[in-house]
Amino acid sequence: MSNKALITGCNGFVGSHLADLLIREGFEIIGYDFDEEISDKSVKAGVGRHKNIIRVTGDLRDENKINEVIGQYSPGLIIHLAAQSSVKLSFEDPAETLAINISGTLNILEAISKLDTPPKTLLISSSEIYGQLKPEQVPVTEQSPMLPVNPYAVSKATVDLLAYQYRKAYGLPIYWARAFSHSGPGQKTAAVLSDWAFQAAKIELGLRVPEIKVGNMEVTRDYTDVRDTVKAYYAIVSKGEPGQPYNVCSGKGFRLADLLDTIISFGSKKINVVADPSRLRPVDIPILIGSAERLKADTGWGPQIPIEKTLRDLFDYWISYLTPQIS
Fold first, then answer.
1. Any idea where the domains of the chain sit in the sequence?
2. What is the dihedral of CA 80, 159, 290, 275, to 10 degrees?
3. Contact indicator for 193, 314 with CB cutoff of 8 Å
4. In b/e form, how buried is each residue of 208-247, taking b as 16+ CB within 10 angstroms?
5. How close are the terminal C-alpha atoms of the chain, in Å?
6. Does domain 4-182+223-248 bear CATH number 3.30.1330.10?
């Protein structure tokens, strides 16, 4: 495999952690992002952190640009992270979500299908494709049906199917991960745990009133630390089998209410939890826990970082970010 790795969404939360890992593994990184500047305050730490990354900008929906970048740099590895990944935003603008997530993936697959030596390519699907489950139906395996209940999940189910179709049609070295929830330092506030940690850090520093606004607290999610998640992605392309999906998950279910209690415990202030109807989804998934047995069997990967450390590092990240704002 060439030591050049193309990461789409390299400036983002997961992309910056993945770049850290791949640089340690000896890769030269080409970072493909929508824009050089990241406006969201929570991911600025990832931008420009590595001065030796080759930075490329463009729209994933631009087929010519994708062909140009892949042709110019001839990566031996492509990891396609870039996406519209917010379920909330997918309800607000389903057409944009479908366009970015499906067209962007299709353009990459079309580009590599025309190459004499196509690079190993990892596409990122989502646990959201499994839809609404009953407690007796978890943990879900890769054989569980795809029953998406929101536009984001529909877009990722399509990515999943495109990966399968292009593998079968062209024999491409395509891998895909069904990523369950992941969190950690640097995550943007569109993600619930980071949003709560951000609110709690502001309260701790006296920057807002002592209340945290929440949506549906009675859901259970399978969380993995982002630093373990990117190791799973690398394990898949290094040791996994192309042509089949891999769940990337901890195999543990965490109630959101319990995770919020943990975050609040890191501070010294008494905090009121306030329900905010605007944070509710039109349809929600009450429980989602996965099995990563296939991934473990094929690659030896397993999560190492406990959820308490993930949440502590996330809270400390926001404290560090916000402290300079105190006059």
1. 4-182+223-248, 185-221+252-287+305-325
2. 90
3. yes
4. eebebebbeeebbbbbbbbbbbbbbbbbbbeebebbebbb
5. 51
6. no
Query: What CA–CA distance (Å, rounded) separates 39 from 49?
Result: 15
The tokens of 85 are what?
């990944």
CA distance 301 to 295: 6
CA distances from 97 to 34, 92, 228, 325 (A): 14, 9, 27, 34
Residue 23 and residue 175 in contact, taking contact as beta carbons nearer than 8 Å:
no
Alpha-carbon separation of residue 84 from 97, 203, 212 (angstroms): 6, 30, 26
Question: Residue 256, Cα to own-chain centre: how many angstroms?
Answer: 18
Tens of pLDDT, residue by residue over 230-287, are 999 999 999 999 999 999 999 999 999 999 999 999 999 999 999 888 887 787 888 9
pTM of the model: 0.93
Neighbours of 93 (CB within 10 A): 14
Amino acid letter at 109? L
Q: Give the pairing type, strands 120-126 and 77-80.
A: parallel
Joined together, the tokens standing for residue 243 give 């042509």
Q: What is the pLDDT of residues 37-87, one digit of tens each?
A: 444 443 444 444 566 799 999 999 999 999 999 999 999 999 999 999 988
Taking domain 185-221+252-287+305-325, whether its CATH number is 3.90.25.10 is answered by yes
